[in-house]
User: Fold this.
Amino acid sequence: MKTDNFKRFMTFSRSERIAVITIVSMIAISLIAKYLIINNPPKRDYFKHDLDSIIARREFVMDSVRRADSIERASAKHNEVPRYAQNDRGASFRPKRNEMERSGEILNSTKQLKKKDYLDGVDLNTADTTLLKRLPGIGSSFAKRIVEYREKLGGYCETVQLLEVYRMDTARYNEIKDYVKIDSLFVPNKLKINSDAFKMMVKHPYLEYDDVKKIVNHREQKGMIASWEQLTKVVGDAINPKLRYYVDYQ
Assistant:
């Protein structure tokens, strides 16, 4: 009697056998999938899958468009024919030569006086546009560009970085280099190379879009970057050597 009960207990109908097989198959598939994922983690391409990189690419393109527009407007302004004042009758006239010469003498005299004010040097990382405009050869546009580039860099670490400011040439730089300085205790704002977002790093003047892509993919797939030497290997020999001033590996 007990044997018959046991046989009935161990006997499955067709639908019950299908259900058991299905459950066992699902468990086996789950175990196999878990094993494959643990031993073969997916390689995520930050460039293709991260929304931040898409947004950063758009901002990069928009910045390029704005720079091109700025260059075009600056070129048009440079090529403008100067307008001369009008007399009481509305007729235009040019200033006389001796008047122009006197104006030049006043301008030169003003520059000489200005230079005396800067024997101790103007700190490039603290000076505002008002102070920068008092430097010889620096007007409103250049003062604004110097400050804007300072903010993008995270601060100037060398005075020669002024040559990277838009439209700053060697002649103008040589005219002011003896009257500007960098405080020896100055510490620039640094990029956290192992944690900053893609769109933040791509804004730095010393990093190209492809450079940031390599950095982020490396830290996502291989781990943190611990030194300048390692960063150079990740980005390549084309990396700007001045970037070393602006990198934090924490």
In short: The two ends are 76 Å apart (CA to CA). Residues 45-49, 79-114 have pLDDT under 50 and may be disordered.
